[in-house]
Design goal:
two-stranded antiparallel sheet; 3% strand; 338 residues; 4 strands; 12 helices
């Protein structure tokens, strides 16, 4: 009961934070950040929206659902289904908050104190939700075991959406980088696909978590789930590095053959293409591991085959791109059209 009240208060605090951001945006008031923050630039950046929806509106909906959920648990009935739903929502909120914090750290290199307060709030809420969840683990495990078929459907949806989005994104990256740069309009298209891919990764992480909870004894020793989880982690690192560290440096870049930065641009382009290939191969690996591996296979064998195929795909794609490129690099560091 006490834990329900704690998260109820934290959800209310989250509503206050997101409402403050939303109201200031509506009134077009400038954000004032203290202790060296830069709320204005962070909250007006391209990451201030997710799939076209303002982040503060998503946050307001997130905290409002949690608030109503904990009121229901306190006032009506501590139903296991509601407890599990709130736990999953807290888990998704945690991942989302960590992602946005990582964006501020690596891409924007600016801090929004409102965003950090919300992230800290989410971390505390998830920690409390874990204690609530542990108290009802047995009942929730039985419940999830009965809805395995539903989890399977979500797994198919997550893989299908992620695989198709990664494939389209990879093709577009190759197309866009023919001129060695990414235009702002091209960047918007890639950003939407990137957000869809991140949504698919979150769906699969939640589904994997549910599988483990449903039957810890069986799924804990499942090499298929472990392999899928490892590949998903590689996808997270790969896509974060591609979307936040490599692609942004290619936005609006112009190729000038007299510039000293030509070689750097070429390396960034090749890195973007390589990371795109890794993303596509990884999604196909997730598909293969999930549906085409039968029985228990050694996890080292699965991952080693995956890494070998990934490296081969990167080497082949890089070789092909260099062969068809319109620019070659000579030994004296000059750049000429073929």
């Amino acid at each position: 009961m006490t834990l329900f009240i704690i998260n109820l208060i934290l959800a209310l605090a989250g509503i206050c934070i997101t409402r403050k951001i939303s109201s200031k945006k509506l009134r077009e008031k400038q954000f004032v950040c203290y202790v060296g923050g830069d709320c204005e630039n962070v909250l007006s950046s391209k990451f201030s929206k997710f799939l076209g929806i303002n982040i503060e509106k998503i946050g307001l909906l997130y905290y409002s659902v949690l608030f109503l959920g904990y009121i229901y648990l306190l006032a009506v009935n501590p139903a296991p289904v509601i407890i599990f739903g709130l736990f999953v929502l807290n888990f998704i909120g945690l991942i989302f908050s960590l992602y946005l914090t990582f964006v501020q750290l690596t891409y924007l290199r600016k801090w929004c104190l409102y965003c950090l307060a919300s992230a800290f709030n989410t971390i505390i809420m998830f920690t409390v939700a874990m204690f609530i969840f542990s108290d009802h683990f047995g009942v929730l495990s039985l419940y999830l075991a009965q809805v395995i078929s539903v989890l399977n459907v979500f797994q198919v949806i997550g893989i299908a959406v992620g695989l198709s989005s990664a494939t389209v994104s990879g093709v577009l990256v190759i197309k866009f980088l023919k001129d060695f740069k990414i235009d702002p309009l091209e960047d918007k298209k890639l950003a939407i696909l990137d957000q869809i891919i991140w949504s698919s990764i979150i769906i699969l992480l939640v589904v994997n978590l549910c599988y483990y909870i449903a039957d810890l004894e069986v799924y804990f020793h499942s090499t298929r789930l472990l392999a899928q989880f490892i590949i998903l982690l590689i996808l997270v690192v790969n896509d974060a590095f591609l979307g936040l560290c490599v692609n942004p440096k290619l936005i609006g870049v112009r190729m000038d053959l007299k510039s000293l930065h030509v070689s750097k641009t070429l390396r960034l382009r090749q890195a973007a293409l390589a990371l795109g290939v890794i993303s596509i191969v990884s999604w196909y690996a997730v598909l293969f591991v999930s549906f085409f591996i039968q029985g228990d296979i050694d996890i080292i064998s699965i991952i080693s085959h995956y890494l070998a195929i990934t490296i081969a795909a990167v080497v082949i794609s890089q070789s092909v791109i260099l062969l068809v490129d319109k620019i070659k690099i000579t030994s004296d560091n000059t750049y000429k059209f073929k």
